[in-house]
């Protein structure tokens, strides 16, 4: 029996983000409040009788085996496992991955019956948690390719809260303690003697699960990559990354009966001189230990890049979070208006 405070907190968190559409089955879950939500968890999801529901979060998720399919999920953290209650449309989205789910296709005649897929990752199988840049997402890694999931929270607060709850639950696990670490100085702890390169900051939990956070070099690598994309037009020392945020690009669907729009996940990066949109691989990097070859695509793929000096105006919607922004740029074909303005320009 969870405390009243915990039940109230879980009820408050049980809200689907307004900009994302989900199936009827998940809408039903989002409609549950208080003790009904806890009873639903124990009656339909929990695998062990004595496990406790500790945290609930709505988030987009990506699976390692289906890296191109982002699906909405209700993420439930208990004292035994992490449950991902998935939108049923995901199962049909990628037909050749149906063996991943081992699901028998059964069309129920009763239209009031709605089925959801539930992916379970037991806490005992958890090996590491990689936190993304600026806490915009995190990746949970188990012992095989089937057990790698990225939660795209797009919200540092939700990421931080989930990580804190996960650490608290992992502290309850009874695992054999690791051998006592030998005292090391800072440089031998975090630096590699061969390359002199700083490793990512790792926190090894008492349950032996690694929590890996990005270091400053990832920002440096990203700045170098953007300078490369700009074909050397950008001066690298002056390239400061001011903002990194996971967003959606709105594409209006023309010819539809309603004024509908599709949301394309993008990584928006603002520097002191440019605005970039990237298609980012949130699931494949850093490479898992069992990966035998690098991923088929780069971590960052440039989708669009514009100079701030070409920005004409920014239109802001008046709706509440999430905020819609429209960037209007001058349609200038040439990179620099002044570059061809020589005496020869006025000749024959």
The gist of it:
By secondary structure, the protein is α+β, with helices and mostly antiparallel strands.
Describe the overall structure.
This protein is of the alpha+beta class. It folds into 2 domains: 4-104 and 112-173, Pleckstrin-homology domain (PH domain)/Phosphotyrosine-binding domain (PTB) (PH-domain like), CATH 2.30.29.30; 217-329, PH-domain like (Roll), CATH 2.30.29. Helix content is 21%, strand content 30%. It is built from 8 helices and 15 strands. The chain has helices spanning 4-13, 24-30, 34-45, 89-93, 98-101, 156-170, 186-190, 216-229, and strands at 53-63, 66-78, 81-86, 117-122, 128-131, 138-141, 148-152, 201-204, 210-213, 241-252, 261-271, 274-280, 300-307, 311-316, 325-329. The strands form 3 sheets. A 9-stranded mixed beta sheet has the order 4-3-2-1-7-6-5-9-8. Strand 6 and strand 7 form a beta hairpin. Helix 1 packs across helix 3 (34-45). The protein starts with a helix and ends in a 19-residue tail after the last strand. Pfam families: PH_NISCH_C (PF25625), PH_PLEKHM2 (PF23142). This is NISCH protein.
């Amino acid at each position: 029996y969870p405390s009243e405070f915990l039940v109230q907190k879980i009820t408050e968190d049980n809200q689907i983000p307004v900009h994302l559409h989900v199936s009827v089955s998940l809408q039903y879950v989002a409609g549950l409040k208080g003790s009904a939500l806890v009873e639903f968890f124990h009656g339909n999801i929990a695998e062990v009788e004595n496990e406790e529901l500790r945290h609930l979060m709505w988030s987009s998720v990506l699976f390692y085996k289906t890296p191109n399919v982002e699906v909405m999920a209700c993420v439930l953290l208990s004292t035994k496992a992490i449950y991902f209650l998935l939108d049923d449309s995901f199962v049909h989205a990628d037909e050749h991955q149906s063996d991943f789910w081992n699901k028998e296709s059964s069309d129920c005649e009763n239209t009031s019956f709605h089925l959801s897929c539930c992916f379970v990752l037991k806490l005992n199988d958890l090996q590491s948690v990689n936190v993304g840049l600026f806490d915009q997402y995190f990746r949970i890694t188990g012992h095989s390719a089937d057990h790698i999931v990225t939660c795209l929270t797009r919200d540092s607060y939700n990421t931080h809260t989930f990580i804190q709850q996960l650490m608290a639950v992992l502290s309850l696990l009874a695992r054999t303690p690791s051998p006592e670490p030998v005292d090391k100085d800072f440089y031998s702890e975090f630096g590699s003697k061969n390359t002199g390169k700083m490793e990512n900051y790792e926190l090894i939990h008492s349950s032996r699960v690694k929590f890996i956070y990005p270091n400053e070099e990832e920002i440096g690598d990203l700045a170098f990559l953007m300078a490369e994309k700009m074909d050397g037009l950008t001066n690298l020392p002056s390239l400061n990354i001011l903002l990194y945020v996971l967003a959606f690009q709105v594409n209006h669907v023309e010819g539809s009966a309603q004024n509908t729009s599709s949301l394309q996940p993008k990584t928006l990066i603002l520097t002191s001189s440019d605005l970039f949109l990237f298609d980012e691989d949130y699931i494949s990097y850093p490479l898992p230990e069992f990966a035998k070859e690098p991923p088929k695509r780069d971590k960052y793929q440039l989708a669009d890049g514009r100079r701030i000096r070409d920005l004409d105006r920014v239109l802001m919607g008046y709706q509440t979070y999430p905020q819609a922004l429209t960037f209007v740029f001058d349609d200038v074909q040439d990179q620099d208006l002044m570059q061809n303005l020589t005496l020869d320009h006025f000749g024959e």
